[in-house]
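Lab notes, practical 5.
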Amino acid sequence: MTKWFAALALTLLAALPARAEIEIEEVTSPGGITAWLVEDHNIPFTALEIRFRGGTSLDAPGKRGAVHLMTALLEDGAADMDAQRFAARVESLAADFDYGAYDDSVAVSARFLTENRDAALALLRASLIEPRFDQDAIDRVRARVLSSIRSDAKEPHAIAARAFDATAFGEHPYGTSPDGTVDSVQALTRDDLLDAHAATLARDRVYVAAAGDITAEQLGTLLDNLLGDLPEAGAAMPERAEVSLDGGIEVVEFDTPQSVAYFGHEGLPRDHPDFFAAFVVNQVFGGGGLQSRLMEEVREKRGLTYGIYSYLMPKDSAALFMGQVASANDRMAETVEVIRAEWQRISSEGVSAEELEQARTYLTGAYPLRFDGNGPIANILVGMQMDGLPRSYVTDRNEMLDALTLEEVNRVAAELMRPEALTFVIAGRPEGLESAPGQ
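Output from the prediction step:
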């Protein structure tokens, strides 16, 4: 983000109230592209969020890391502008663009002033439709990616995370790093990047949201100008991933004074009718910060770690319920024992009425605070679209939380939390622990 734009964004953000009761309009362009819009003409600024479903999971066989490298190069030159000229032009317009590649999506974010809208969007269009992929830019960004890959190979958190993914997903793209390997990234050519671009950036998988100083008519025209020349269809979506977490422990030996553990088992997809109740269960168990059971039992009572948390991870092709913790090598065995005991306890006993009420109060009270500016609003809206949620979700969400009963939450806790499937992948030298597959 440019310094000028960052300062402007902070000023505009301070002027915006926190809100969750917003009016969402569905806009369809003359060319048939759909977007969600929240108009706000109080300030001359607009946030635009674009998502292309598929992401790094669409890497072609033998080309791991291509989508990630391609996405990182979108701002390194477009049309008749090399990387330096493109960056200078964005800076001159006080605009801000961001590009990211993830397991299930390629994300594009844009922030621009109303007076510079047309010029900023012309630049954004060039980056999406006419990326240059100059060889000097490829070499420069490739070197940065390779440095990151080599750094991760020496970092216990990254080692544990990659090993957990490999155990959980096997040969599915989720099972390997979206960044690729040193060998796969070194072998990528410009043609591979062009193929990755065509596979991922297509109109049949695009989701768009906007918030700010723009009308529905203006947004409709913008959509066709910005995205209308993309290919109609991209690569086929990946197959459903089979989750192979059946309990047990896997230790990845790594010389470090503090071991890192990822733990969990299969979870619930976002569209599952019990997902909301599972969301509350996680809040009580490990998602609620210092108020969660894991923090209370592992950190506060025993001092085994500085921090521990759990989370739901509903991906497009699979879902996990998992957590993360770091502990000294001589204390990781006890940490694992306590986590297992708490996993069993919430499965068999559920949550208390007081815990449910505390979780509900926090989750309903915190929700409006997420709508703290045009950028966050646009980001929430595009996420809702990708999750298949209706526009009414922003007003219905807290009512849905309030409607959950203790009996319903505890039924889901018993079904969601499966102690026999709880799997630990640990990077380090944990004393008293060794690899042992589940039964």
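Observations recorded by the TA: Residues 1-20 have pLDDT under 50 and may be disordered. The chain is about 45% helix and 20% strand.
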